[in-house]
Write a structure and sequence with these properties.
353 residues; Rossmann fold; 3 domains; 6-stranded parallel sheet; 12 helices; disordered N terminus
């Protein structure tokens, strides 16, 4: 038996050999029974090994195990910026998922500049990370092709290039749910603050918007679709542009909560009320949107599930991966920023054309 410092009777640290000797099993059996990455066995032998390990005060040395496998246990994560709540939430989810696997994450940011991705990735690789998770993918980016050619393990998350291993939300479904919600409330002139064209997340949500409009036999007026970045300032500018149209929309779907918050500010600056004058839907459901003076209807993205899928893809054998792009379904969260639309006479508009 050992003291609380997890040392054996000789004063040295308890090893896997000590556990194997005391349990009367092989070292490989102990390693397998105590490996937290594997499904937990409830066999009599496994319970016996865990009991002996606990009595001896054995703690598995994850770093040593990683070094024996030629790994460091470090995963590099690249995000556009951590001041963006969405990216901060993603990183926290990735860090938690990595911790459950006995690994830890290192983050680098790029300010969403294409050339900065290469610099960040190479810096992380020089520090010995076992793989990369990138949330910076652009449609025109060629760096992922280079990583693939070099055999560097990497996974894209939140955004995909359509080819690489990717863990993303089902953005087309999310865009469809947001737009369908507004249609069901009687809105016919529904504007889209579309986000940047280089991000698959934005283009997927736009595709969902167009799908819902087509299914409802509603015209997709090009003037109602405004490109933007993912910033609050871009949302303010996009809302102002929409409000200058001869025929204003009655509802706005913004493909990002930041741009939705910006749109909310832009509407308030000219005295328009949400939802009385304009219904508004955002995307991602970051924590602040439920605490706004007018809580924002938003599409919730399951970041923890996306992070789990990303770590799974990074650790799986390439030959065993059935679906290289894993999409996780989002959920619409209705709040007070959307309401049924009434015509000029105060009559509720039917939910379908």
């Amino acid at each position: 038996m050992t003291d609380s410092n997890q040392h054996n009777v000789t004063g040295s640290k308890v090893t896997i050999h000590d556990v194997a000797r005391a349990a009367g099993v092989s070292k490989s059996t102990v390693s397998r029974m105590l490996d937290e990455r594997l499904p937990r066995s409830d066999s009599e032998k496994a319970r016996h090994v865990r009991k002996i390990a606990e009595q001896l005060g054995y703690v598995r040395d994850i770093s040593a195990a990683s070094l024996r496998r030629g790994e460091t246990g470090m995963i590099g994560v690249i995000v556009p910026r951590l001041t963006d709540t969405v990216m901060a939430m993603l990183y926290e989810s990735l860090a938690r998922a990595a911790m459950r696997l006995g690994k830890f994450t290192i983050v680098a940011s790029t300010e969403d500049e294409p050339g900065a991705v290469r610099h960040a990735a190479e810096a992380l690789l020089r520090r010995g990370v076992d793989g990369l998770i990138l949330s910076t993918a652009r449609d025109e980016d060629i760096y992922t092709k280079e990583l693939r050619a070099r055999g560097v393990p990497y996974v894209l998350t939140l955004r995909t290039d359509g080819v690489s291993l990717s863990a993303v939300g089902d953005d087309q479904l999310g865009g469809y749910l947001a737009t369908r919600h507004l249609i069901d409330l009687g809105h016919r002139r529904i504007a889209l603050i579309a986000g940047p064209s280089y991000a698959s997340s934005a283009t997927g949500r736009r595709a969902g918007y167009l799908q819902a409009m087509r299914e409802a036999d509603l015209e997709s007026d090009p003037d109602l679709i405004v490109g933007s970045s993912f910033s609050i300032e871009a949302g303010v500018e996009a809302a102002r542009q929409l409000l200058e149209l001869p025929r204003r929309p009655t509802a706005i779907f913004a493909v990002n909560d930041n741009t939705a918050i910006g749109a909310l500010s832009g509407l308030a600056s000219i005295g328009l009320s949400v939802p009385d004058d304009m219904s508004l839907v955002g995307y991602n459901d970051v924590p602040i949107v439920s605490h706004l003076p007018t809580p924002l209807t938003s599409v919730r993205v399951p970041f923890d599930q996306i992070a789990h899928e990303a770590l799974s893809l990074l650790s799986e054998d390439m030959e065993e991966i059935g679906q290289p792009i894993r999409r996780v379904a989002p959920t619409l969260i209705p709040r007070k920023s959307t309401r049924r639309w009434h015509d000029a006479h105060g009559n509720a508009v039917a939910s379908r054309p």
